[in-house]
Amino acid sequence: MTDYTQPRFDHPPRPMAQRVGAIAWPSFFSAGVCTMVFFAFIDPIDLRDMTFPGLPISRQLGYTLGFFVFWTATAASSLFTWILLRPASRFNRPLSPD
Questions:
Q1: Could you tell me if residue 11 is inside a domain?
Q2: Tally of domains in the chain
Q3: Domain enclosing residue 39, as ranges
Q4: Is residue 46 a part of any domain in this protein?
Q5: 30-54 pLDDT per residue, tens
Q6: Is 71 within 8 Å of 23 (Cβ atoms)?
């Protein structure tokens, strides 16, 4: 008979730094690529003039803000993937026939 009182994992728990790095590094890399591709076609000054014409946003600040927007979006995507791929908890186990 299977003992369901203790959770079973197919791997040892990972350190928090490794888990955060597994989310932050791919999202950082993807944000860099997205920023290069996006700003190869879009000038931050033109984007500012269309969206926030009253704000004194420089080209460099536009690049920086764009990078952090892309980084946040890709980090959220990596985080949601990590959440969906976590092992099932002991509360999600199938009911045992009695």
A1: no
A2: 1
A3: 19-85
A4: yes
A5: 999 999 999 999 999 999 999 989 9
A6: no
- The Cα–Cα gap between 32 and 24 comes to 12
Is the per-residue pLDDT at 79 higher than 80?
A: yes
Residue 96 is predicted with a pLDDT of: 56
Among left, alpha and beta (phi > 0; psi -120 to 50; other), residue 93 is: beta
Structure token pair of residue 23: 């989310």
Reported pTM: 0.73
Q: Comparing C-alpha atoms, which of 4, 8, 14 is closest to residue 82? A: 14
Rounded to 5 degrees, what angle do the CA atoms 57, 62, 65 make?
115
CA-closest candidate to residue 74, choices 37, 39, 24? 24
Establish if 57 belongs to a structural domain: yes
> Residue 19: what pLDDT?
83
- Residue 56 three-state SS: coil
Residue at 62 is within a domain: yes
Retrieve residue 2's tokens.
Answer: 């299977």
